[in-house]
Amino acid sequence: MARPHIEPFCDRDVPFKKMTLPGFPSGMHYKMLSLDKDTGACTMTVQFDAGYRQPPGFSYSDIELLIMEGGLRVGDEMCGPGTYFFIPAGVALPAVSTKTGCLALLMYNQTEPNFVESDEDGDGADRSRLIQVNAYDDLSWQVPTLMPATAPGCLLKILRWDEVTGALSFLYCMVPGFWQDNISFHDCAEEAYHIWGTSWIMQFGDLPTGGYFWRPPYINHGPFASEHGILAFGRTDGELYNHFHFNPYTTLKENREWAAEKLKHRKPALFKWIVAHEHNHLTGSELKK
Ligand SMILES: [Fe+2]
User: Fold this and answer.
1) What is the DSSP annotation of 222-266?
2) How many A from CA of 200 to the centre of ligand 1?
3) Are 244 and 182 spatial neighbours (Cβ–Cβ below 8 Å)?
4) Can you list the domains of the chain with their CATH numbers?
5) Which residues, at least 6 apart from 132, have a Cβ–Cβ distance to it below 8 Å?
6) Distance 215 CA to ligand 1 centre (A)
7) pTM over 0.85
8) What is the pLDDT along the chain (289 residues), one digit of tens a residue?
9) How far, in Å, is the centroid of ligand 1 from the Cα of 243?
């Protein structure tokens, strides 16, 4: 997911555009939040107009969908705010419609948005990976178990964990008065959208309701604070490890080198194996780039 760094961005500052890609019914509008120009993978705020109707069908990409306002009827089921879907590539949904309209986050993980009308799953579809959950009503907040841990008052609801890549999709909140005084970076890209509320981050200022970022690996972020609290949706594209420090001036190269040095100590056998294998693996000098 080679998307550029986008931060801060607020979707309230830009108008909706009409979705005109082939296959999509009329009545769907979008705001592009981030886009991988190589693959077309993207994250969008989407407005389905009142009366929108979509026939049964699937996409060639994994899709993630979070309903934020209004609702969608999916087959016989009415799905309201907080409903999250992970729809694997090729898995067909029944007909989708909305009487009163719906505001949602919509993510295409491998390709540009596409829709194929079909009553059946496509070739190779793995329906066992389908997730549907109401993140507001059906899941409890949990204290993150990641170590090193974020400051108390930032809570999670895990919506999806990819056991191959370690990628996470989650709802998170900061309680009113939350603050964290250190600086973080990660080995993975990090993405978030503010469903409600404003938080402050030293490097990028206030992120309000409708605020969004796509943050590639090793970018310093923090300290953080939120006066009234926030509710947000977040994702990573790999295992989330908090590299914490207090130096706001470190570069991406220094952060990468520091992470590699940590790997050497935390997983010495793995580190040795990576640098020792000359075929199809990074060498020691490549790790320092
Ligand atoms: Fe982070």
Assistant:
1) --EEESS-EEEEEEESS----EEES-TT--HHHHHHHHHHHHHHH
2) 13
3) yes
4) 6-134 (2.60.120.10), 154-250 (2.60.120.10), 257-289 (no CATH)
5) 79, 83, 84, 85
6) 8
7) yes
8) 589 999 999 999 999 999 999 999 999 999 999 999 999 999 999 999 999 999 999 999 999 999 999 999 999 999 999 999 999 999 999 999 999 999 999 999 999 999 999 999 999 999 999 999 999 999 999 998 888 989 999 999 999 999 999 999 999 999 999 999 999 999 999 999 999 999 999 999 999 999 999 999 999 999 999 999 999 999 999 999 999 999 999 999 999 999 999 999 999 998 888 877 765 555 555 555 4
9) 9
Question: Quick one: tokens of 30?
Answer: 């979008």
- Looking at the chain, how many residues does it have? 289
Distance 211 CA to ligand 1 centre (A): 15
